[in-house]
Amino acid sequence: MKRTIRNILFVVFLVILMVVTGCVTGRPLEKMGLIVAMGVDLLPTGRIMGTAALYGIDPNAKDKVAVLTNTANTLKGIRTKQNQEFSNRLVSGQLRVVLFGLPLAQHGIVNLVDTLARDAEIGTGVYLAVSQDNSSELLKNRFPEISNIGTFLYEQIQQNSRHEELISTTLHEFLHDFYSVGKDPVMPLFHYMNNEVHMSDIALFRDDKMVGHFNAQESFYLKLIRDRYKAGTSEIALRREVLDELIPKKSKYSHDDMFYVVISNLESKAKIKLIRQNPPTFQITLHAVSQVHEISEEISLGTKDVIRKLEISLNQEMKKNIEKLIARTQKLNTDPIGFGEQYRSSVRYSNLTREKWRRLYPKAEFTIIVHNTLSRTGIMD
C-alpha cells in the first residue's frame, strides 16, 4: 500500500515538473540585444546621455557591434528609449564595462552606480572606468583593429589587472570604498588618440567625484602601498652621480644626468601603522623583492657590493616617489590608500566621519621605510 502511494506521488511530481518546464519561455540569443559596454555622459542641460555597445550575434553581419545613444534624466529612462528603437529586447546580463565621461565623473556618480547595483541583471563584477573624452565618442568610434569596442575595453582592463599593471575597480569595489569612511575609490582612465585606445592612468575620486589622476608611474607606487603586489614592472630613474663609479662608460643611449632601471616586482607587502593621533602620523614600511629586468647603462651586477649599492639607490628613489605621491593625495584631499580606515581602526572611540577625515588628512604626517631586495638579477622570465 505504501509503495503504491509513493509511486502515485512520484508520477504526480513528474507531471507537475513537465508542466512547469514546458511553460518556461525560451530567450534565444539572436532575439536579444546583449549590452557589453555602456557609457554615460553629462549634458549641459543636466540630462544624461547613455550609449550602449551591443554584442553582434549574427556572424554574417558586417559590423560586429551596434551602438545606441539616447538621452534622458535617468538610466532607466535611457533603457526604455533604447528598447523602443531596437528590434530586439536589450538585456544587461553580459554587461562588462561602464564608462563615465569626464564631466560626469567630476560632477558625481554615486546615484548612477547605486542604480547599477540595484539592477538584478547586472553583476557586481562589472568594471567601472572613466573616459577622458565623452564616453559616447569612444564607444561610437570605429577602430580598425577592434571588432567590438566593449569586449576590447573589458579584456584590456582584465589583462592589465591580472598582471597587476593597474588598479581596476568593479562595481562592488567602488561601492565598498565609497561607503568606507576613510578611503576613496579609484578607476582606470581611458582616452583615445590617433585612432588608438589607451589606458595607463588612474582616476582619483574624493567621495564620488573625480578630482585628479595618477600616471602609470604613480599608479605603480599607489598599488605598492595599497595592495599586496606579486607582478608588474616599473622604470625607475636614478641620478648617475649616485652610482657613477659603477658605470665604466656611457652607452650610446646615455642621458646626461640620469640612467634607468626596470624592475619587476616579484612580491611586496606594505604595513601601515598609526604612531601618533594628533596630528595623524603614519609609518609605512614596504618590504619588496624585485628583479632587475633592464638597465640603460653597462653595470655589472656580478658582485654583492654592486647589488647592495643599487638596492640602496633604488630604495631612496622609491621612498622619494612614495612621499611625492602621498603629498599629492593630501593636496587633492583624497585618500585612495585608506589611511583613514587605519586611523579609525586604531583609535578607540574616534567617531571618524568623512568631514572629520577631510580636515585631518591634509595635516597628516608620514614616515616611509623601504626595504627592496634585488633577486635573480641575471634571469629574465
From TrEMBL:
Q: What is this protein called?
A: Ger(X)C family spore germination protein
The terms describing its cellular component in GO are: membrane
Indicate where this protein is primarily found: membrane
Which protein family is it in?
Answer: Belongs to the GerABKC lipoprotein family.
Q: Which domain of life is it from?
A: Bacteria
Organism from which the protein derives: Brevibacillus laterosporus
Does Nucleotidyltransferase count among this protein's keywords? no
GO biological process per UniProt: spore germination
User: Upper taxonomic classification of the species?
Assistant: Bacteria, Bacillati, Bacillota, Bacilli, Bacillales
Q: Which InterPro entries match?
A: GerAC_N, Spore_GerAC-like, Spore_GerAC-like_C, Spore_GerAC_C_sf
The record gives the membrane topology as: Lipid-anchor
| Domain Spore germination GerAC-like C-terminal: start-end pairs | 201-378
Question: Is Membrane one of the keywords?
Answer: yes
Q: Any idea which UniProt keywords this protein has?
A: Germination, Lipoprotein, Membrane, Palmitate, Signal
